[in-house]
Amino acid sequence: MNFADIRQRTLSRTRLALLVFAMLTTLTIAGQTWWAIEQDRQQTMASETTNGLIAVRLLEEHASQTLQDAVHTLDRVARAVQASPKPTSDSIRSLVAQHDIGHSRHLKALQYVSPEGLSWISSPDYPTHEARAYERDHIQFLLRHPSHQGAVVGRPYASAYDSQWVIPVARALFDSAAEPVGVISVDIRLSYFGGLYSRVAKENNASVSLVSDDGFILARSPFEARYVDRNVADSQPLANLQGAAEGSFSDESFLDDDEGPKLYTYRRLASFPITMVYARDFNSVLGAWEQRTFERMSLAALAIALTAGLIYFLRVYIRRLQSSQRSLRDSEAKFMGLFQQSPTPSVLARYEDGLFVEVNDAWLRQLGYQREDVIGHTSREIGLWVNPADRAAILAALEHQTSIHGMEVQHRHKDGHLITGLIFVQPFQSSTEKLLIYALIDITRQREIEQEIRDVNQQLELRVKVRTENLEVANRDLNGALASLRAMQSELVRSEKMAALGSLVAGVAHELNTPIGNSVTVGSTLKAKAADLALAFEKGEMRRSTMQDFIDNFIWGTDILMSSLTRASELIGSFKRVAVDQSSDQRRQFDLQKTLQEVCLTLEPMYKSTPFHLNVDFPAGISMDSYPGALGQVVTNFVSNALQHGFEGRKHGNMQLSATVSQPGLVLLHFTDDGVGMTEDTLKRIYDPFFTTKLGHGGSGLGMNIAYNIVRDVLGGNIQVQSRLGQGTHITVEIPLQAPQSHVPADGAASIDESGQRQPAA
């Protein structure tokens, strides 16, 4: 027998042992799991039966107490009737009506039935009334058996008055001579049982029922009208209920319940022919058990799978162990082949003393040595390290870390020149001793290039320094130019403002000329009329007609004088307020409607003699805490721009100025004209200072720039311009009713910073 046969037989025995172990383990796990599942099911059913009995005992006690309370109520009425001398139907009805059951939550009504079958019902829920109850089985029974002494529970029924379901409990009435005088019955609210039963049923996913011995369902929860008063006398399990005080059984259709097997537990009421039934379907009872069963089976399957996997891996491990030695030898051969053929210069050295064990051809070419020069020697012996401290630092670092990556060192070539490189060191354990593998990447040329770059950077820094000094000189010159530009801009803004005020003064003076001239003419006429009247008086030629003519002329003249002087007074007052506001930066409370009307009144001379019109719409009651002068200057610039630019080449045109409250605390001003509009390029540059399409023809290019800065920096709002060529212009200004605290002058003067952006004037 050769070695291969022995090896094959050993493998066969190993496989057989592993197979037997796997089978025994699987059978043990499966048997243990099945036994645990069965035991768990028995304990679950026993626990459910115990819990069900506890539930029906508590429910039975509640039902017994409720029925006993109803019987006690009947007994009190019966004693009152028996104590009455010669009770009649009317007196019994009076006694029943006087008996108060309003304090009881479960009693709904008292009912007296005479021996003739007439019924009178008394209830706190509805008025006392007469009804026929002779058809009720329990009433018929008591009327036919007047000597019956106990209480009788009847079948549930819906009250004829309010359709609420009740369970009646009745007994016979006797007078003082023990003669029957009728039947007294009390109705128990079915909802009283349902309130408790529904909570129990909902919390346990169960059903709760009251079943009489004659086979009628008195109450059930969850409540469904189809179950109430249902006859289940033919059901086989009913005999089980009547044969024992309590117990349990399983059935699929008892009480005509929903299909499916259920576990029923029951208990008979102590003093009544009624049984309390508590039922849960097996899905609910065994739900947790099924989950545990699934988990146990899953765990068993996992254990079997793990056992199978373990056996498989043991088998694989044994096979691999037998070939590990061959693989190790093959790996060593492959490693040495890769080591020698690697293009990276590499060295194998002993960890303890640094003795070279092996070097590859790339290392020999890079450092100029022959293999026999280094094998069996250390790096110190051949003078490899320019700085021996580098080797000590590497060994010290390996005490705290597993490898060295990219440490810069210098080696000496065999011919003496220096080589700068990045060294990578990785220690590893061979089969006999601990070794170090070194790999060296030559970066000598890279360092030379870096030095050249540093030299170039130094030269660039000198050039940048010179250019920076030149830029500083140029910057100082530019700052001087900007200062001059700011001064010129401020002067132009003041000139623009004074020009607007001068135009306002000229317009107002022109408007005042007409009313003042009319006043002078009327005054001279009245003076002449007065002289004629005085002459007639001196001559004694005064007549009534002359006096009447003078009075008529005087009234006519004074009307004209008042109209002309009032117009002049309004113009002067508006001019004074607008002029004061626009020439000062004062903030004050003002009425928006009144202020805008005064501004528009002062602007009338600008367009009164032209074919253009300004229509206004200002709502009353808008109070502002802001800068009225700044607001007036914005409106003036809008109107001036429209007259100067918007209606160029037009023979007629309309402007519209309106104000609305857009939301609490904000007001919107809308200025529109139906003029020539603007191009897109003009619209983009409309706020730029000194930009105008009328350069050299009276346009300064500051109107909209001033309006923009006033709206944004003084009034604290926003401005938006929409325009298309040939379709007019629409300007929307949104400003707060209370202007923000600002130190920017109301004239809207602005400066230009070094980047060319508009900045508020200081």
Q: What are the SSEs and their pairings?
A:
Elements: H1 3-83, H2 89-98, E1 107-113, E2 118-122, E3 129-132, H3 137-144, E4 152-153, E5 157-158, E6 165-174, E7 180-189, H4 190-204, E8 207-212, E9 217-221, H5 238-243, E10 246-251, E11 262-268, E12 274-281, H6 282-285, H7 287-341, E13 346-350, E14 356-359, H8 361-367, H9 371-374, H10 388-398, E15 404-412, E16 418-429, E17 434-442, H11 444-539, H12 544-582, E18 588-591, H13 592-607, E19 612-617, E20 623-626, H14 628-646, E21 653-663, E22 666-673, H15 680-684, H16 703-714, E23 718-723, E24 729-736, E25 750-752, E26 758-760
Parallel strand pairs: 19-21
Antiparallel strand pairs: 1-2, 1-7, 2-3, 4-6, 5-6, 6-7, 8-9, 8-12, 10-11, 11-12, 13-14, 13-17, 15-16, 16-17, 18-20, 21-22, 22-24, 23-24, 25-26
